Amino acid sequence: MTRTALITGITGQDGAYLAKLLLEKGYEVHGLVARRSSDTRWRLRELGIEGQIRYQEGDLADACSIQRAVIKSKPQEIYNLGAQSFVGSSWDQPVTTGIVGGLGVTHVLEAIRQFCPDSRFYQASTSEMFGLIQAERQDENTPFYPRSPYGVAKLYGHWITVNYRESFGLHASSGILFNHESPLRGLEFVTRKVTDAVARIKLGKQHELRMGNIDAKRDWGFAGDYVEAMWLMLQQDRADDYVIATGVTTTVRDMCRLAFSCVGLNYEDHVVIDPQFFRPAEVDVLLGNPDKAARQLGWKPSTSLDQLIGMMVDADLFRVGRE
């Protein structure tokens, strides 16, 4: 029997990769899309799946539209990936970030509780909830200390998911995902900012790359690997929370070095430190411990950082070269 999934945030990086994975597994995939004047489905076209999605119009800030989407799609699995997902913008839009990242999760959980309580729910939590880290390696038991409106909003979404699971018996799991990137990442994110600049500098369309704190450390993986972990969580008999990470931390500086080396350039000749790109409350180090996911889900990343950055540089060279 064909299973049905509803994905909020389907037009984002993770939503697109997850939709592709579920379609390959034979799912009927519904995607929640908000009405926008700009083109939001380009990632789905990039993966060749735009025409295979059944679209439901709605917005996480509007409870009624979430209820309609759930009633119409009748999903066995619901993946809540929708959010204002850029940490930097959360300082400029703290209220919107809080409404979508916090209240929006409650809207989905309430719709599940009232209309499809047997559905399984995935909440996209984030390593940004750890913020000012309280342990060298962060796992499911590490205390949270978010350092941005984005992290605070996600923490609300995380804990309301736990609350609905424990209060109403919903099969509701959270994936605490560390940084995960791909050629489908938005240009505002640091990895794509770097690989796009590398392509432009190599092709003579740009001369320098202005950056903030390049000594910050992050645990980077490939989004295509991480969506598999999302799916695996909803296949378990018991709902739970999982850290999804590579377990390896790398500085932004070393990521720049790696990206520029892909095209035979020295990053030091092109990277310029600009104070305007420093965040108000910087998160200096994030390093995940994915042992629980490996043990209980059988999940581990299959793409190295070298492979990931090489893939992204190649994609940006192709794209920029055609502009």
UniProtKB/TrEMBL annotation:
Q: Which UniProt keywords apply?
A: Lyase, NADP
Q: What class of enzyme is it?
A: lyase
**InterPro entries, per this entry?**
GDP_Man_deHydtase, NAD(P)-bd_dom, NAD(P)-bd_dom_sf
Recorded E.C. number(s)? 4.2.1.47
Molecular-function GO terms, alphabetical: GDP-mannose 4,6-dehydratase activity; NADP+ binding
Pfam family name, one: GDP_Man_Dehyd
Q: Which residues belong to any copy of the NAD(P)-binding domain?
A: 6-312
Q: Name one GO biological process term.
A: 'de novo' GDP-L-fucose biosynthetic process
For this protein, what reaction is catalysed? GDP-alpha-D-mannose = GDP-4-dehydro-alpha-D-rhamnose + H2O
- Read off the SUPFAM superfamilies from this record: NAD(P)-binding Rossmann-fold domains
User: Needs which cofactor?
Assistant: NADP(+)
Q: Which HAMAP family match?
A: GDP_Man_dehydratase
Q: Which family does it belong to?
A: Belongs to the NAD(P)-dependent epimerase/dehydratase family. GDP-mannose 4,6-dehydratase subfamily.
Function of the molecule: Catalyzes the conversion of GDP-D-mannose to GDP-4-dehydro-6-deoxy-D-mannose.
Mind telling me what this protein is named? GDP-mannose 4,6-dehydratase
Native species of this protein? Pseudomonas pohangensis
Designated gene of the protein: gmd
